[in-house]
Every structure is written in structure tokens, then in C-alpha cells.
Amino acid sequence: MSASTGQMTSSTVFSHFLDNVFSIPQGHPIRLSFAQQGYDTVEDLLGICENELGTFGYVPPTSLDTNDNPQWTPLLMAHRQILRHFLRWQASLERKKGSSLDNSELVELTSSDFAFYKRSALGQVSSVLTTATSSLSAPGIPNKPRSVFYGQKKPVYCKEDATTLSVNNTNAITKISGM
Which domain of life is it from (predicted)? Predict the structure, then answer.
């Protein structure tokens, strides 16, 4: 961006993510969902909890113009996955730095950076899955596919209230830490 990064507003950084990191066009369901829910700053974006993603949706613009009863549409799984990867990427960057990224650092991030993170994250999951499924098989017993997390607890971090939750394989949720 040509503007001085020292003067980046939260709204400018939010727009940077939509335009240059997610690279999504106007009218995209993610943009519509954010606009209709009042998300317009980077704090709004970074404050999303991963477990909230299932509640994201939008009313298509054609529905607003032609229908007295507009139909709310949930975001597709693929769109929620983009946001999920983004939230995990941001958490990873913050862990590496040791603190939150400021606006000048956030505006330097690109779609290539995000794509690289997604490829490496997916590569880690697929290699863990291969290792986990091969270690589950025993001679003479057919190998049943199982989740990577079978029998393990999966942490879910919520920035909104700085709480880490643990979800075990029975989908019971327990609070394991808070700040």
C-alpha cells in the first residue's frame, strides 16, 4: 500500500485483508456476512472465535430487493474454512512474535503468505493423518480410518474472552484455562 503504514486505520487493515489477503470480490458471501453483521475493523475480524463460525451467514442482495421475507443463508463450509485458517494463522503469527501484530505488520501480509500457511497447515494434517492411521493397524486386522484426534482433546481458543476450551472425542467441552 502506498499510504504510510504508521497511519493505517483499523478499517483500512480490515479492507486490506478482504482485498489482498483473502482476495475476495465485492458481493462475496464472506464480505456480505461481515457487512451485514457490522464487521468493519481488524479488531472485529481478529476477535472472531472459531466456534462462532457456524453462526456466520448473510442475506443475498437479490433476496433483499425481490422478497418481502429475505432468506438468511449460512456461509458454506469452504468459506468458514477460509476464516478458520485465517484465525489459526493469526494465532500462529502472534505466538511467533510473542505479542499481537500491529497494523503496520498486518498490512504487510499478503495472499501468498496466507496461501503458504494454508498449504503447510494442510500438509501437517495430512502427514499426521497418515501416521495416525498407519499406527492404528495391526497385522491381520483391517485398518479403519479414524480421525486424527480420535481419543485426543482438541483445544479451541476464543479470543473474545481469552479462554481455551478442550473438546474431547465425545464432544464434551471443558474449560482448561482462562486469562
Answer: Eukaryota
Q: For residue 58, list its beta bridge partners.
A: 73
Domain region containing 172: 149-179
Which grid cell is 162? 481469552
In a domain, 115, yes or no: no
Burial class (CB in 10 A: 0-12, 13-18, 19+), 83: buried
Q: Flag whether 124 is in a domain.
A: no
Pairwise pLDDT comparison (125 vs 106), residue with the higher score = 106
* Element housing 73 (H / E): strand 73-74
Model confidence pLDDT, tens digit, residues 122-146? 656 544 444 444 444 444 444 444 3
Q: Answer yes or no: is 53 within a domain.
A: yes
C-alpha cell at 82: 477460509
pTM greater than 0.70 (yes/no): no
